[in-house]
Amino acid sequence: MVKIALLDDEFLFVEGVSVLLASCPNVKVTLAETDGLRFLSRMSEMLVDDIPDIVLLDIEMKPMDGFEVIERLRSMYSEIKIIILSSHYRQNVLGHMMKLGTSAFIPKNTTKAQLLEVIDAVHKNGLYFTTRDYEMLRSYLNTSNRRPMLSPKDKLSSREQDVLKLICQECTSQEIADKLYISVRTVESHRQHIMDKVGAKNTVGIVLYAIMSDIHPLPPMA
């Protein structure tokens, strides 16, 4: 069961998505709100068993916008995965989204099937990228001067690079373990070491690092 929280300042949109997800047997909406401040307040009062695995939220909201909500969520619950569901699907938003460590960015006119596909991928792998996302990311990186650097003592080992490449291919920990003939626990240990070395907070951060360091090249343009 994937626990979902919804936040959007349009009541009808929140209600509509809640009804849509209620028909899915493996998804449970544990919180739905239209105000960022109330959302964070209610999150802080939730029982541990009700804390969502994934938060779906919009960007442009008042009085607190989605980016500020994400920053506060990150400080409160580092393990929660975040999906931005917005009509403002632009390159500069995607770049800022990745800096904040959100897991996916999908337009509001997405279909039910696509939304469930994204939720499933984010829940399993921590990341969901479309071809269009990659195209915008390529453009974003071409205009960015920031290049990640590691000191020699922090350099990723050959095995860590193998794990990182498979993470970038959106493989689950079990799939990585099967491909590399190691245990899931070892995969998770490598993942944590990679995050510690590159200073990433989650899967999105280490994928961005891999792309900027040419460990994982972006797919070629169609």
UniProtKB/TrEMBL annotation:
Signal peptide: none annotated. SMART domains: HTH_LUXR (SM00421), REC (SM00448). CDD domains: LuxR_C_like (cd06170), REC_NarL-like (cd17535). It comes from the Bacteria. The modification 4-aspartylphosphate is found at residue 58. Pfam families: GerE, Response_reg. This is Response regulator.
